Fold this sequence. Notes:
Blueprint lengths: L17 H35 L2 H18 L1
Helix pairs in contact: 1-2
Keywords: Membrane, Transmembrane, Transmembrane helix
Pfam family, one: COX4_pro_2
Organism: Daeguia caeni
Amino acid sequence: MAEHHTSAPVEVGASMDYNEHEKTYAGFTALVKWGTIATGALMIALAFGFFVGGFFSALIVFILVCAAAWFLL
Length: 73
């Protein structure tokens, strides 16, 4: 078997910039949260528009659901 000889210390990588890491994670979680809310609001608006009829009524429902989520969260 081949042997692995190293005389120098093993490099573990550069130091972490934890502030940037936390900002990236916060941005990702916000994107997932609002993306999920927008998708749910879109599904509700599409169902409302299908059963009640009308593009503008579905658009109003979409805006109302997003506004309600904004105030509740």
